[in-house]
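Please annotate this fold before class:
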Amino acid sequence: MSTAKTGSDHEAHHARVGPRALLALAGFRRLLFTRFSAQWGDGLFQAGLAGAVLFNPEREADPLAIAAGFTALLLPYSIIGPFAGALLDRWDRRRVLVAANVLRGALIVTSALSVAVGASGTTLFTLALVVIGVSRFINSGLSASLPHVVPVRNLVEANALATTLGAVIAVLGAGCAVGLRAIFGDDNLGSGTTTAVACLGSAGSAWFAIRFARGALGPDEVNEPSQTAVAVARGLYDGGRAAVKTPTVLAAFVALLAHRMAFGVALLLTVLLIRFRFDAGLGGLGQVAGLFGAGILLAGLVTARIVAAIGRRRALAGGLLLGAVAVVGFGLPLTMPTTLAAALVISFAGQVVKLCVDAAVQRDIGDDLRGRVFALYDTLFNVAQVVSIALAALVVAPDGASPLLVLGAGACYLVGVGGFALVSRGHA
């Protein structure tokens, strides 16, 4: 079993090599293109679906309908993730990435046809559950494969580059959806046509993935029962046990859990404010997405330097504190400019937290368990975000003007800081 040196602050002792040196690695470069194609398609599909449900004059939207839409985007992998993670640690990840992308492309076309013919919200949400579930599975496979294409000493920097650029590419995909809607129209047929274009991302991702040699992405060893069904059933248990037994990962999970719950509330409020209070339409949501992408890009540029300067633990806690300040300071005025500012700062803070958590899993979890831990990672935090959105939808004002929910989101961040400190101190 491949293992990694543990400890929250040891990254500071490794020199950064820079993006140019990382991109010179053929395997890393190919994995990046696999990720970029997949995430461009993800961004376009999700934005196309959001436009079809939230900003389509032929359909109505309210807080509960919006919450149901977010559930469709976030819940699927929360259900299948722990079990799929066992497959990532059992099956050739290269083969899994190819097959999953082909399946996702077919499902995207099916979803697009359903949008075009005016299928019910239940039908669309069910299809979205499956499409996004496959997408999450692909993302976990890409994350689990990263240590096979870069040296372990460069994982923090490589993960920051891959995750950040991938998120920016997803935002660009969402921007393409906005542009395509302007061409094809915002009715059911136009929305369906826009959504269908996302299948090109799946095709490109499968093409790049198939160029890897068999076994090149792991797993190196298989620590599983011979029966696949038993291996799948053990996914949740094994991932949870590995996370709990690794102090740096457990503490990081506590922090990210708090961020995702706070972010879920902020996300629902933002969509409602743009849709009903500011009347900014899909263009306003595009502005938020653009600033969100800018925050992610900025975090990718500076997180490795922050970790090198102050260590992963302080960087992670600082991200949570910045999130608390941003959500309250920019959220309470309830204006479009401050909402845009909140999108920029909260996305930056959240991405710093996420990159630190990714690094903890990639460095401190062995290769034979890494896929399951990443799958559990997605599951826990998507469930947390879905629950926070659902609970907020029950009490939020119809136009999103709910100061108490803003304060509640800030409190989530502060609870996360306290929980992270307690778990870290308890294992020190």
Observations:
- The longest helix spans residues 247-277.
- Confidence is low (pLDDT under 50) at residues 1-14.
- The radius of gyration is 20 Å.
- DSSP finds 16 helices and no strands in the chain.
